[in-house]
Amino acid sequence: MSKPVVATTSLSGCFGCHMSLLDIDERILDLIDVVEFNKSPIDDIKEFTKQCDIGIIEGGCCNSENVHVLKDFRKNCKILISLGECAIMGGLPALRNGIPIKECLDEAYLNGPTAQIGNEEQILPNDEELPMILDKVYPCHEVVKIDYYLPGCPPRADLIWDALVALVTGNELKLPYEVVKFD
Amino acid sequence: MRTIINKIIEKFNRNEARLMDILLDVQAEFGLISGDAVTLIAEGLNISSVDVQQTISFYHFFSQKSRGKYTIYLNDSAVAYMMGRADIARTFEEECKCKFGSVTEDGQIGLFNTACIGMNDQEPAAIINGIVFPKLTESCVKDIVNGMKEGKSVPEMMGELGDGENSNKLLNSMVNNNIMKTGSVLFSDYKNGTAINKLVTMTPKEVIGEVKASHIRGLGGAGFPTGMKWDFCSMAEGDERFVLCNADEGEPGTFKDRVILTELPNLIFEGMTIAAYAIGAKEGILYLRQEYHYMKAYLESVLDKLREENYLGKDIAGKIGFNFDIRIQFGAGAYVCGEESALIESCEGKRGEPRNRPPFPVQKGYLQKPTVINNVETLCSVVKIIENGGEWFSMMGTKETAGTKLLSISGDCKYPGVYEVEWGIRIRDMLEMVGGEEAYAVQVSGPSGICISKKDFKRTICFEDLPSGGSIIIIGKERNLIKDIVCNFMDFFIDESCGSCVPCRSLPLILKNKLQKLLDGNGVMSDLTDLENWSKNMKAANRCGLGQTAANPILSTLKNFREDYEALIKNKEKDFDTGFNLDAAVAASCEAVGRNPQI
Ligand SMILES: Cc1cc2nc3c(=O)[nH]c(=O)nc-3n(C[C@H](O)[C@H](O)[C@H](O)COP(=O)(O)O)c2cc1C
Ligand code: SF4
Ligand code: SF4
Is the whole model's pTM more than 0.90, yes or no? Predict the structure, then answer.
């Protein structure tokens, strides 16, 4: 049987979740024994080269590019996992959700202390190359169907490891209380 | 400002437990509680500004920004909408040229939404500078706003006064009682003072015995046996005890306490006096919702009269050593303050956050002392129990629910109003009585109760079948149950959660979004399972009755009107639809930066 294929991406996240994935330490060697990586920042494959089994998503959607990437993942992966608070709930970036987008842009580019110097022409970025900002940050499952959620900010390395092993082996994931208790 | 605020603080003896009263006075004096006022109050009471601020931020009627010289609070309950609230709101906005939730540019008129103000039988209704304007029409809205533009005072704009005591000089209110049916307990003939005169010939034990014998259960909603509550309190350890009367009446659709407060205030105070005698309390508090502030002078005068007649004060009714007096504590707009432990917190001048229980209020209540809290109607009924005996009372009603109940009935029926009925009345008979035979659904006991369909109209109102705190809302065929009723109720809980428990703070909003998704046509069948499963968690995972019942509007309609939900799902096979729309999501930012969206 060929190895299950895994893809990962970071949308509107801080890469902390990917760092946590690397935190499985030497087990990464075991991991590449049992799975094959496709599109992912880990191996720097930029585009899908084949259908994947598992897609791991860090971060929610804050702009149009995030949405396109996420939809692309949905199309190319059998199973999608929302990894971490940002993917599941929007996380820190979603703090802007209560504020109209115009106010956010004004604060960031026109009125904020760091915008006073350097943006004398008072420009709001609108280059065609730039993705368009969404009215709020959306958790992934509000854009596409998500199959599993791994909570945490970031989720602990062991949890990611256990989840991947469970998926690959088909065994049930054990979730003792300590693993899902956060305060 | 300093002198005025100091005077207010002095009036309440610099007692931080009276912070609510101090804030209410400051808000009334200045129309807002400014940052400077907060500092002055904090200094005056020797507490931190944050303590003052957190209380302010909790209550709807306190504000740190001006809400206008004229402040209009328009009820946004489901029944208000049934009675034409949307047109009234639109007219206010057009006439004032400002939106709800804001103040006109000249700072004169503020338009605000507010939860049920206890006027469901005469909606649409608004509270303007404390005065209730019931049965608003578009033309009276125009007159009111014109009056404001001319600088008239609010009393000058009033119309005809209401019936009964509502036209008493001290009440001076346009509200109508709408008493549609009187029964043999509350509205029976009674000579004021009779029960107190009898009371002082009994021992406290005998009084509790009589209340127990009546089998009366609390009429505020939870139905706890009153005699047992008093017994527990009298046995609890403490050097002082208190009697609190719950007149918060916040459950949307309830307005029976309003009518009792207007027509039978003596009974309330006598009932509190009886409870005080039974448990040995010297002080009582009537916790009255801010929406009923127009009753203040009237109720104070009733208290004064009772003091004159020696039914309150020292050696009551000639009984040496029986001392008891009552003060009125106003709330400031918070449904959760009807919950007994939140009510206590509020009486102590704090945020109305429910306490963990145990200890129960009968053990550690107001100021951590043993406290009895009863609903207005319970205390009034007790007066008649003392007058006529427990057995007399226990003969009425059903096996497990003795006595009568005041129902506040509103919505799609011919004769909305207050009805005193024996417990055990069949829903179908009730509908006939109020001219609501055409009902599609009946909401029993307000948003926190349940919504029943025709197949349940044979059921009866009593604790062994359909319990009710008094709110009955009749919903006609022409209504969109999910959009007009369920969503409105969910908005209510979203606004009113105190925020302590995570599920109560967040789930109602998440559930409401799910409902909106269904209404937008993006629903799939698994949304219904989600709604049900998530809603079920609310009961177990929240601290107080608010959170525990906040998903009831969804749970009971899913059970009794599932077809209404399924009708919203066009494609039953589809397993996923987020309803996410990229065009819509980028529209605002593209407009802000002046860019053509290229999807
Ligand atoms: C959210 C919430 C709101 C409540 N509101 C009221 C109210 O407005 N009036 C009332 O009498 N009881 C209300 N209750 C019930 C009280 O907690 C308490 O049970 C009642 O006042 C006891 O009096 P009773 O035994 O005479 O009914 C409420 C309970 C909850 C959980
Ligand atoms: S969940 Fe935490 S670690 Fe992961 S991307 Fe968001 S902020 Fe970073
Ligand atoms: S259930 Fe809701 S209202 Fe009650 S204490 Fe918890 S958060 Fe507050």
Answer: yes
